[in-house]
Amino acid sequence: MNNNNTHRSRLGMIIITIILMGALVYLVGTSLQKEQQTADIANLTRYDTPSQPITNDPFLNYGQQINQLTSAPISGTARTLDAYYSRRAYAGAPPIIPHPITDAYSFGGNTCLQCHQNGDYTPEFQAYAPIVPHPELINCRQCHVPVTTDELFTLIDWQPLPHPEINQSALPGSPPPIPHGRQMRDNCIACHASPATADEIRLTHPERSSCLQCHVYIETNQEWIR
Amino acid sequence: MNQNKFTRRDFLKMMAASAAFATATKIFPGILFAQNEQNQMLTQTLNDANLTAQDVAWHKAPCRFCGVGCGLLIGIAEGRAVAVKGDPASPVNKGLCCVKGYHSVMALYGQDRLTTAYVRRDGQLVPTSIDEALDIVADKMKETIQAHGKDSVSIYGSGQWTIPDGYVANKLFKGAIGTNNVEANARLCMASAVTGFITSFGADEPMGCYDDIDYADVFVLWGNNMAEMHPVLFSRMLDQRLQRKHVKILDIATRSTRTSLAANRSYIFNPQTDLAIANAICYEIIHNGWTHRTFVAKHCTFKQGLTNPGYGLEDNYVFNDEVSDISFDQFKAYLKDYTPEKVAELSGISARDIRYIASLYGDPNLKVTSFWCMGVNQHTRGTWMNNLIYNIHLLVGKISTPGNSPFSLTGQPSACGTVREVGTLTHKLPYGTVDNEAARQKAAEIWQVPVENIPPKPTYHTVEMFRALDRGDIRFMWIQVTNPMVSMPKLKRYRDGSQKEGRFIVVSEVYPTPTTDIADVILPSAMWIEREGLFGNSERRTQHWDQLINPPGEAMSDTLQLIEVARRMGYGDLFAWDETTHIEDIWNEYIRFHEGAKHGMAPYAELRQNPGLRWPYVNGQETRWRYNAEHDPAAANDEDNIFNFYGKPNGKAWIFFRPYEPAPEEPNEEYPFWLCTGRVVEHWHTGSMTRRIPVLHQAVPQAYAELHPDDAKKLDIRHGDLIRLVTPRGSIEIPASVGQRGRPAAQQVFVPFFDESLLINELTLDAFCPISKEPDYKKCAVRVEKV
Prior knowledge:
By secondary structure, chain A is mainly alpha-helical. In chain A, 28% of the residues lie in helices and 2% in strands.
């Protein structure tokens, strides 16, 4: 009995030692590897042309958004396409911020994205927040600015590029082509299948995630001539 | 903080009470406006013409605004600019812009655009045909030269001049007329960067390029609110941090900004003590053995200059630095005054933080890029501060290799291209300086003028030029593409001076501004894409654009205005270019100045095809890292050295000992606050373009004075209250801004300078860096009073 106990405690000691040694080997190994990695990156990148496209995967954040895919907002104010268009100086312009900013001393990732990354319901506005199609760009107010006055400095003769016509299907019932550019908004789901989506452009079939299978960008309005 | 919380809760309550979003639109007029009026205004339009996106032709042009030089695609339909996209083919911005860039084309269409010339008759500006106005300008110039000599006429241009504008101005004044009275507003924004480069390396402009952002592990920002002032580069940096998790951004500044909030670490120092902090970093590097000994031994020498040079506050101030050799040991001994402990006390940054920053610079496994702009340059010791940042990078050998880069950012689209490269400063020629005989000879040969035409002595730098106008030494000034009656420091003296009897001011502009208000002749200018042009950005990239639309009315490009006046003055032979090809002809003549491996420029045809090309452009190749033989053919040398700082005679860069010296005016009992001026992301400089863009004006309609919340509380000032700012130069009443986008340190006030009706430069001091002659807009003493 006594013997057994001694054996057991010895065994315990050995196991603990093995675990500790293993942990040591792991820690030393990873820390060494870490250094190695920096060096590798340095060598690898030295002469390469860095590729850093600021464009998105069409299904970026799809996982988060899919939870909210819905055909209509459950509650709150619905937006119209005109309301969205009125926030842009021309078709494709970054929209203004139509609501007051509560914490101006802040940076996008900590404020704007709280609502606009996942399109959550915002009780103070009684509406769902539109989802940003490019959440990786976190300096939001680089492009989006609020409206703090309705006055103008001077009048302006601005004639913008008009917003595109929607539902330009070639045949009755055929999938409509994409009438807008892809830059900064090639995440279809963000704008077309969230609770904040305007009815006119809401997807009827958000579960079919391969949008470009059926919907193509209109690149030109010229006819093909052989 | 408490007050903030209260406001938010209050706001939430108010919002909850409103039954629907529609109610909110009544509370916040902005929303109402956005949905109705703006809607109507923005979409009145080409709708009738059945225009679609596919009818729009997209043309490349560099952005009209800051020195980043983003590539834009401008949508043109029916002879009008109707939309903007970021150019995905541009390696600068890779398709992303900022709010100014996206709305830039709207600045072309303000209803008060100048479409005809004006001439002052009996005190009134009267519309006049441009031909007659150009005659008057030429006659007045000839008359003034006859009565008061060549040095009584001057031109004051801009870092927003296109390269051909600046080239023709330089040739007309220095080559044809024979006066060095050529200056540009870039003197107010990056002259210290130039003298920093010249003193440390003997050649101007950065050794690195924006590609450094894709390689660096650590970014150190010196007094630079990049998130607002260079947002596209800042976003590239953030993107790198997202992709490579170990990347760090350090913000060293005097005010907490969006940049500070986004940075991994933010350090707030007492104004002017950046000099001591940089020296403390050098001290730490040397004392911890982080010096790259072989690099320093092979490629650097140690120097010191004169100290206590003054601040240029008096007229006719002269300072010539005398540089002498020192040893490494001497340099080390000088740094004894800058231990982290001593500097911590002075600067307000803890010794531990200083050690941490130094350790990142010193870590041989980290690539470090430093960025700076106005905080370092608009500094009464601006040249020194530039030298000090180079010292840090040189000591650890982190320079001229991918990711290791001391990188001086510029504020204007062609501060580099037009002012620094074409040499539109009093002492400069497109190649070399006016006091160098070989440089004068080269200029005379290319310009086909007698070499005696070009005076060997520089005349006035910008501040002194306006002082000379005040004194009467200068009688005629032609101002192009800039708005000095908003942007000059100690404004009242220079505004009064320019309006004295016997002064004649010509202003080439696109909109009425406080500067056109004092003009005797206003010439309407063709703007940006209304003419063909070239800009050169911060990373030595030259970008060309075609004329995309017609200028309104009689508006004419600044290049053509200058050529027309030159012809009227009898110098037609020197400017005998054809109007359809003049930009190409000028470019071809100009690049003869820069032939060779050190500064070769890309040919016109290639510039038209590419989204910009970086010089030195040698054998069809851009140079990304200068002074590095692996990238820069000019750096190749006999020895097996990779680096060759060929701007200096022996190929060695200079490490300068530059001490800390106090600012000329520091807070005191009567004026207990620091006053710092600057910019916001929405507005470009003096706002003459961006305020006419509805989106930008409506975001920031007027200037304000930012206060630290504690100071505001002490003075019983709430956000939006009117306060009075007073300095010995003047005072203004301006709304206070508390808890908004920026937070100055305690006992400091920050005011943006874009607002022509709240002129903060009435208050600023015209002290400048004795070497660069660039004024310090960031520091003077001010009193804050509640109105």
